[in-house]
Amino acid sequence: MRLALWFALLLAAVPVAAQQIYRWVDATGTTHYSQDPPPAGVKSVPVPIRAEEGPPAPDTQDCYTVRCQGERMEQRIARRQESEARAAAERAAAAPKTVHGLTFSKYISIQRGMSEGELLGLAGEPDLNDTGGAAVTAPTTVQGGRNLRVPARAVYSLKTYTYLPTSADPFTTTISLVGGRVSEIERIRKF
């Protein structure tokens, strides 16, 4: 096995334009391979060398040095780390958000008419946020021209912030905002 490995390494190290490889066995039974002819009086067998072109290397450059192989290994490690980071980010994005809830001390500080910014500063980000609505006021009339009064309705954005129950605070709190101001506050015990 060791001899076959040595022979393979010897063949790999020989350039294609090499003359000839000789094989012979000495008096002690050791097999030798050499480019030089054997000593006089020793029977040798020429080893045929097939100089065929092998498959193309996976990389465009040959990489035989330790430095080159180390750089390629670092590149593979960097690509694997990037792939693992992307997979971790995807898992984190797919994971459900943690529920923060709304403590009683924060709940009693919320008042009708409070702005949305004040609410978020006091209570923090809601667990659920619904911004897909509009509130329409009762019809009134407004001056449309010099002698013309026309019916008018004001449309305000409607948002609903929901703070879900936690083990420390078992209440669901729903806050409705109309036009950027707190309009309704509802707190219901869930468990």
Shape annotation: rod-shaped
Structural class per helix/strand content? alpha+beta
Strand order of the largest sheet: 4-7-8-9
Order of helices and strands, N to C? HEEEHHHEEEEEE
Query: Architecture of the largest domain in CATH?
Result: 2-Layer Sandwich
Q: Mean pLDDT across all residues, rounded?
A: 82
Oligomer: single chain
In total, the number of strands is: 9
Please summarize the sheet with the most strands.
4 strands, antiparallel
Fold topology:
Blueprint: H1 2-13, E1 21-25, E2 31-34, E3 44-47, H2 66-94, H3 104-107, H4 116-123, E4 128-136, E5 140-143, E6 149-152, E7 155-163, E8 171-178, E9 181-189
Antiparallel strand pairs: 1-2, 1-3, 4-7, 5-6, 7-8, 8-9
List keywords for this structure.
alpha+beta, Beta-lactamase Inhibitory Protein, Chain:B, domain 1, 4-stranded antiparallel sheet, 3-stranded antiparallel sheet
Task: Provide structural commentary.
This protein has helices at residues 2-13, 66-94, 104-107, 116-123, and strands spanning 21-25, 31-34, 44-47, 128-136, 140-143, 149-152, 155-163, 171-178, 181-189. A hairpin with a 5-residue loop joins strand 5 and strand 6 (149-152). The chain has a 4-stranded antiparallel β-sheet, with no helix packed on it. The chain has a 3-stranded antiparallel β-sheet with strand order 2-1-3, covered by helices on one side. The two termini are 75 Å apart. It is rod-shaped, with a radius of gyration of 41 Å. The chain has 3 domains: 1-51, no CATH class; 65-95; 104-189, 2-Layer Sandwich (Beta-lactamase Inhibitory Protein, Chain:B, domain 1). Helices cover 28% and strands 29% of the residues. It has 191 residues and is an alpha+beta fold. It is built from 4 helices and 9 strands; from the N terminus they run αβββαααββββββ.
